């Protein structure tokens, strides 16, 4: 009995199946959303926005001298000081192993500084318990978990900035550091560098509100293209055109007006908080892009475009810089790390040091690190 004219033979079905496989591979990427890295939870975003609004509102409150005042109290009851303070912002996911060295660095200078620590929630209690009274660190309440290759590191830095803005109106400089950073000059040298930068820049004059931020800003980094498109083609447009995209170190020293600028921003943040594509995660370093791009777009003349934190990238592994080991620590190393490339101030901090370096660093703290 003959088969119906509309019945396809097994050979025809097999041929059609084989032909459809390439079509599936071609159409699937267009029909299915691309895989991305985890995004920031909405609850974290809401908490941050409330904090940022308070910080901006306080910083926008008019006063006779918005930067420094000899009277009045801060949000947490602190008296305002006439001298500008440095807010040291530690971003850590573990204990601050070099706190004994930092204690020596801060000794005798607490009237000129405040400390703020954003610790991973899993270690926050341990970090707080380990702090000695002389360290005087303020562990941020409401710290959120952070992870590499995500905008959570930007959020953590913004949280630190907002908290420091709220805590003390005398905080004028905001130095972001990690648990692997160490000082390589005594505090008075660092403080003098911050205050004297305007002497090198006549266009700023003696207006303390026009002092510059020390943040690295690069526009010719070899991986700039891959980093810009890490979230997908044209995703950054129109807010961040390619020609405006910048790269820089994630560690910086911002002046107060720039700290407020970062906390107030929504426009660029809506772009940089978008998760990177999973297939481009090796080019996803949002914390190295957001801050230099934002400041270069809004106040390029207000930035030195170099950082005060020395990092050794000569033998980086998986995106991490060289980690100094105990056998490398010496007075000669500290003096070498201080040197600039001739176009900027000497470096004030350095990273990345292994925890085991604490003992040899303490041995040369008084004779080298904290001595000019």
From TrEMBL:
- For this protein, the parts annotated as crossing the membrane are 6-28
Question: Which InterPro entries is this protein grouped with?
Answer: BC10-like (IPR044174), Glyco_trans_14 (IPR003406)
Q: Does the keyword Iron apply?
A: no
User: What GO MF annotations does this protein's record show?
Assistant: glycosyltransferase activity
Give the residues annotated as coiled coil.
none
The record's keywords, sorted A to Z, are:
Glycoprotein, Glycosyltransferase, Membrane, Transferase, Transmembrane, Transmembrane helix
GO annotations of cellular component type: membrane
Compartments (UniProt record): Membrane
Q: Which residues form the signal peptide?
A: none
How does the protein's chain sit in the membrane according to the entry?
Single-pass type II membrane protein
Quick check: keyword Transferase in the entry?
Answer: yes
Per the UniProt record, one Pfam family is Branch
Indicate what this protein is called per its UniProt record: Uncharacterized protein
């Amino acid at each position: 009995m003959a088969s119906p004219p509309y019945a396809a033979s097994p050979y025809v079905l097999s041929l059609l199946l084989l032909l459809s496989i390439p079509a599936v591979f071609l159409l699937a990427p267009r029909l299915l959303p691309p895989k991305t890295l985890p995004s920031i939870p909405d609850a974290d975003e809401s908490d941050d926005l409330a904090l940022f609004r308070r910080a901006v509102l306080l910083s926008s409150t008019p006063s006779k001298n918005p930067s420094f005042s000899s009277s009045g109290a801060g949000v947490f009851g602190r008296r305002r000081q006439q001298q500008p303070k440095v807010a040291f912002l530690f971003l850590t996911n573990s204990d601050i192993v070099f706190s004994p060295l930092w204690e020596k660095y801060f000794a005798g200078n607490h009237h000129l500084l405040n400390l703020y620590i954003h610790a991973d929630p899993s270690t926050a209690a341990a970090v707080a318990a380990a702090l000695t009274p002389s360290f005087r660190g303020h562990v941020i309440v409401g710290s959120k978990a952070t992870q590499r290759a995500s905008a959570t590191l930007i959020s953590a830095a913004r949280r630190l900035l907002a908290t420091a803005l709220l805590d003390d109106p005398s905080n004028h400089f905001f130095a972001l550091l990690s648990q692997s950073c160490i000082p390589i000059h005594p505090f008075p040298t660092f403080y003098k560098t911050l205050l004297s930068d305007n002497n090198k820049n006549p266009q700023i004059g003696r207006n303390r509100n026009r002092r510059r931020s020390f943040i690295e800003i690069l526009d010719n980094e070899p991986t700039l293209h891959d980093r810009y498109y890490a979230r997908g083609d044209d995703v950054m447009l129109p807010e961040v055109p390619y020609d405006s995209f910048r790269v820089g170190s994630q560690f910086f020293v911002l002046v107060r007006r720039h700290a407020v600028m970062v906390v107030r921003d929504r426009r660029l943040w809506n772009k940089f908080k978008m998760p990177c594509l999973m297939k481009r995660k090796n080019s996803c370093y949002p914390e190295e892009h957001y801050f230099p791009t934002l400041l270069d777009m809004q106040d390029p003349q207000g930035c030195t475009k170099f950082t005060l934190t020395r990092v050794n990238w000569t033998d980086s592994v998986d995106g991490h810089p060289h980690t100094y080991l105990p056998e490398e620590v010496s007075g000669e190393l500290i003096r070498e790390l201080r040197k600039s490339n001739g176009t900027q101030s000497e470096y004030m901090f350095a990273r990345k040091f292994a925890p085991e370096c604490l003992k040899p660093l303490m041995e040369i703290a008084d004779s080298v690190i904290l001595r000019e």
